[in-house]
Design brief:
This protein is an alpha/beta fold and 354 residues long. Helix 6 runs parallel beside helix 7. The protein binds pyridoxal-5'-phosphate (PLP).
Length: 354
């Protein structure tokens, strides 16, 4: 199987497994796991924040971030396809008691102008704005990257109005590789940053939430409430430390593979994708003009040993990562091309007979 469903499918490298085997551990709820403490210190440094928390998932990191940045009954502004909104089981409402103010965007990226118009001053009718959430890179929009200037405008503008900013940087290392700018600089103006160790960086699981020490102290308690108080979790932190040191430099290879896939897909009749807009490791392509449903394409590809997810009623998503090399991308591209042409032939044939 060539698995392009997500970069979450990456398996830990031999170096990670060795580090896990050798990890020094303790009870992390007592803050006595030396490996977790090292990971949190290193992650804070990379994020350019005072402190960091090791959390089991990105969803928990985002959940805690929104909780510490907002009060019950406030609004959180994000784009309308945000992971926080569509893939986290309404945790903003369920756990933090916040409404979402979703802004439709072309490429998943908010602008200060759009955000500004949705910030609500205190008044007797509307929910006040508590936070803005930006997704860097944007998953469902196809790994799109916020330019620094846009991020600065949003963060500075929000702060001027007393609104805080969370960066859902699940794939911030991909953004960093694409922009050639270090993570701490990309996240510098955001109050909190979440990033995943378990995606393109390849750790078996775990994410980081980073921000001011006072917020991370509060966040530690929310992590416990959510069932994220883990014990000898240095085993996982050890893999995370290797991921932080060794994986970021390799992401450019995934980006080149994604570009390669996008360029190939753009040549398939009926497929809509602009390869120049594929900036990182996510390739979202529209198959609606091929006359076949994305779910069917995904099912047919599976029969050929290629895994890609249908993400809506028009698009299929392929995500590159270090467990799929260029040769496998070539094979995947051939399979997609054949599948879509087959589909078109079948559709034409059935149109003729009917
Ligand atoms: C994957 C992802 C998350 C977190 O996902 P988990 O599966 O909970 O680790 C958050 N935001 C974005 C944009 C993601 O792609």
């Amino acid at each position: 199987m060539i698995d392009l469903r997500s970069d979450t499918v990456t398996k830990p490298t031999p170096a990670m497994r060795q580090a896990m085997f050798e990890a020094e551990v303790g009870d992390d709820v007592y803050r006595e796991d030396p490996t977790v403490n090292r990971l949190e210190a290193r992650a804070a440094e990379i994020a350019g924040k005072e402190a960091a928390l090791f959390v089991p998932t990105g969803t928990m990191g985002n959940t805690i971030a929104i909780k510490v940045l907002t009060e019950h009954g406030q609004e959180v502004i994000c784009d309308s396809r945000a992971h926080l909104l569509d893939y986290e089981l309404s945790m903003m409402a369920w756990f933090s008691g916040c409404l979402v103010r979703a802004i439709p965007t072309e490429r998943g990226l908010l602008s200060w102008d759009a955000v500004r118009r949705q910030i609500r001053p205190v008044n007797p009718y509307g929910a006040p704005t508590g936070a803005v959430a930006v997704e860097q890179t944007h998953n469902m929009a196809g790994g799109t990257v916020y330019p620094m200037s846009t991020l600065c405008e949003i963060c500075d503008g929000a702060h001027e109005r007393g609104v805080r900013v969370h960066m859902d940087g699940a794939r911030i290392f991909n953004a960093s590789a694409a922009l050639g700018i270090p993570v701490h600089e990309i996240a510098s103006r955001a109050d909190t940053l979440m990033f995943c160790l378990s995606k393109g960086l390849g750790a078996p699981s775990g994410s980081i939430l980073a921000g001011p020490a006072s917020l991370m102290d509060k966040g530690r308690l929310y992590r416990k409430r959510l069932g994220g108080g883990m014990r000898q979790v240095g085993m996982l932190a050890a893999a995370g430390l290797v991921a932080l040191e060794e994986s970021p430099a390799k992401l450019v290879i995934d980006h080149a593979n994604a570009k390669f896939l996008a360029e190939g897909l753009a040549k398939v009749p009926g497929v809509q994708i602009d390869p120049s807009k594929v900036e990182t490791n996510i390739v979202v392509f529209d198959v609606s003009a091929t006359g076949h449903a994305p779910a069917d394409v995904s099912a047919r590809l599976r029969q050929r040993g290629i895994l890609m997810n249908a993400i809506n009623d028009r698009c299929v998503r392929a995500v590159t990562h270090y467990d799929v090399d260029r040769a496998q991308c070539i094979a995947a591209l051939e399979a997609v091309t054949e599948t879509l042409l087959e589909t078109q032939a079948a559709t034409t044939a059935s149109a003729k007979t009917s």
